[in-house]
Specification:
By secondary structure, the chain is α+β, with helices and mostly antiparallel strands. Helix content is 36%, strand content 21%. The strands form four sheets. The chain has a five-stranded mixed β-sheet with strand order 7-8-3-9-10. The chain has a five-stranded antiparallel β-sheet with strand order 13-12-14-11-15, with helices on one face. Belongs to the DNA polymerase type-Y family.
């Protein structure tokens, strides 16, 4: 009789402990086994299977892991005084530092912060380790960036012997123990709300948004919670008197589409928690690029060209290492008043050569060299494919073959003696281009 009266050990209202993974027998405030207050409870806790995982202050967390002396100090990962914040640790965020904030503003808000230049090679390596742990949970992993991804855990309960919610909690403990960083996770029935949930209780968070509560929860949120609603679009919506998602829920789909086109259709569905997108594990990289922010604004071609060449070589090295090539070259410039200019050109065939990337970017750059001062320069390639058909012989430009062979020889020497073993005349002795950043895979 006592056994019949006992609460089931997997009652979602009782939940489980996120620190020792013990299922709770009652609605206690602390874990019945280890005393931890980190309990996960939700009426739909064991029915949901779509997750979004995001590492907490990823770059800064890695730097703190590798240098324990930084543990209790505010850390900003980013460029020099003229750069921007890539990541700020949570101590720095308390002072008002945010990602993408100009560095001078970040240091005004938190002058005692330790500023560390990005080490993309290290971050990519740790990101791959996190990704490998994700793929051990399910084959349905869709990366969004170096440190976040969607996971579909449906059908894995028999494999792991526990519900997806507990699998996520165990994953977070594994990352913390094996890699020395922390993650936050969101669990829901669709991708939109899983991502929203993962931002709730950072760091070390695990949040759940169920289907039954979705409409009520969304109604109270600002329109900026919806993907694609940035500052400019939010201002347009506010001009129309729309500030909350609840207001969108009361509008007809046709009215929204007449006002805002395709975005109106998105507003209609997402405001109601309707998102039928699936997790696609084969989402390949869309572009490979490298950029740098200058300490002082630059307008002279004589100063911009060496930087462009160095960045082109960085992008080329990444393409060659990955066995891929790109057909569209993209030039990125940011003016001194933070206005962004992007220009692109599609090539006749894919390339992975630094010379072709540079020469194409140079032609695009010349068209923008009108005396404008730039604070940022970037170059990249998109329309990626494997490199089997990259850079075929050019019957018109007979010198291209010689330049390709010379580049191959340079690559061989650099691989044997280091990156500075051979330099072109474009970059040799040019201080500004000495240390361009590692390319970013978008």
């Amino acid at each position: 009789m006592f056994a019949a009266m006992a609460a089931p050990v997997n009652n979602p209202d009782h939940g489980f402990c996120r620190d020792c993974l013990t299922f709770q027998r009652g609605e206690t405030r602390r874990c019945e086994r280890c005393g931890s207050p980190r309990l996960a409870r939700h009426p739909e806790l064991y029915r949901l299977h779509l997750a979004h995982i995001d590492c907490d202050a990823f770059y800064a967390a890695i730097e703190k892991r590798d240098n324990p002396a930084l543990k209790d100090r505010p850390v900003i990962v980013g460029g020099g005084k003229r750069g921007v914040v890539s990541t700020a640790c949570y101590i720095a965020r308390i002072h008002g530092v945010r990602s993408a904030m100009p560095m001078f503003k970040a240091l005004e808000a938190c002058p005692e912060a330790v500023v560390i230049p990005p080490d993309m090679e290290k971050y990519v390596r740790v990101g791959r380790e996190v990704r490998a742990l994700m793929q051990a949970l399910t084959p349905l992993v869709e990366p969004l960036s170096i440190d976040e991804a969607f996971l579909d855990l449906s059908g894995t309960e028999r494999l792991h012997g526990m519900p997806p919610a507990v699998v996520l909690a165990r994953f977070a403990l594994t990352v913390e123990k094996e890699l020395g960083i922390t993650v936050s996770a969101g669990l829901s029935y669709c991708k939109f709300l899983a991502k929203v949930a993962s931002d709730f209780r950072k760091p070390r968070g695990l949040s759940v948004i169920g289907e039954a509560e979705a409409l009520g929860f969304l109604a109270e949120q600002p329109v900026t919670l919806i993907w694609g609603v940035g500052k400019a679009f939010a201002a347009s919506l506010e001009c129309d008197g729309i500030r909350t998602i609840g207001q969108l829920q009361r509008m007809e789909r046709g009215d929204l589409m007449r006002r805002y086109g395709v975005m109106g259709d998105r507003l209609y569905h997402l405001s109601r928690g309707e998102d039928d997108r699936r997790v696609h594990p084969d989402s390949d990289a869309k572009s490979v690029s490298a950029e740098t922010t200058f300490d002082t604004d630059i307008s002279a071609m004589a100063e911009l060209v060496p930087v462009l060449r160095a960045l082109s070589e960085k992008v080329s090295a990444r393409l060659k290492k990955s066995g891929i090539a790109g057909r569209t070259v993209v030039l990125k410039l940011k003016t001194q008043d933070f206005k962004l200019r992007t220009r692109n050109r599609q090539l006749g065939d894919p390339t992975r050569l630094a010379d072709r990337i540079f020469q194409t970017g140079l032609d695009l750059l010349r068209r923008q060299a009108d005396g404008t001062k730039y604070r940022l320069l970037g170059i990249g390639v998109s329309d990626l494919s494997d490199d089997e058909k990259a850079d075929p012989p050019d019957l018109v430009d007979i010198q291209s073959r010689k330049r390709a062979l010379a580049e191959g020889a340079i690559d061989t020497l650099r691989g044997k003696f280091g990156k500075k073993a051979v330099e072109t005349g474009y970059t040799f002795g040019k201080g500004r281009s000495a240390n361009p950043p590692e390319p970013i895979e978008d």
